Amino acid sequence: MDKQIFPRVAVGGVIFKDENVLLVKRSNPPAKDMWAIPGGKILPGETMHEALQREIREETGLQIKPMEVVYVFDVIEYDDQKQISFHYVIIDFLCELSGGSLKAGDDAQAVKWFSKSDLNKYPVNEKTLNLLKNKLSNWS
User: Which tens digits make up the pLDDT trace of 94-120?
Assistant: First the structure.
């Protein structure tokens, strides 16, 4: 019997400091081993903002205040038999940094503040690049 895959909702936090954006090197799919916006799944009973604050704290050690939604997209990946392995609807929020100490944790292999020029030097997830280069064109 085929397993049923339902879309899961996840959130991401776009955090800037001194004209740099915070990215994490992901340990798990989607975008495993690539640099991406930090975030993760919303747990049952959590609001989007609660999930975002928890995920950012777990992955980066930072505390944030979620602001407005800046990007919404799907991530659908297939296995070798062309069956859906997972489907996420991801909502990225612009966030204000409010505290904490930067440290990779949870499912982040590493965390790093990226300048615009750094984006070409590392394997950055395609959706993250689209967000930063096209959706946030006012990023200085």
Answer: 999 999 999 998 788 999 999 999 998
Phi, psi for 58 (deg, rounded to 5)? -65, -40
Span 8-135: which CATH code?
3.90.79.10
Domain ranges in the chain?
8-135
Going by their DSSP bridges, the two strands 84-100 and 8-17 should be labelled as: parallel
pTM above 0.85, yes or no: yes
- The full length of the chain comes to 140
| pLDDT tens profile 6-43 | 899 999 999 999 989 999 999 887 788 999 999 999 99
What whole-number distance in Å separates Cα of residue 100 and Cα of residue 57?
8
CB-based contacts of 108: which residues, under 8 Å, 6+ apart? 24, 25, 26, 27, 38, 59, 60
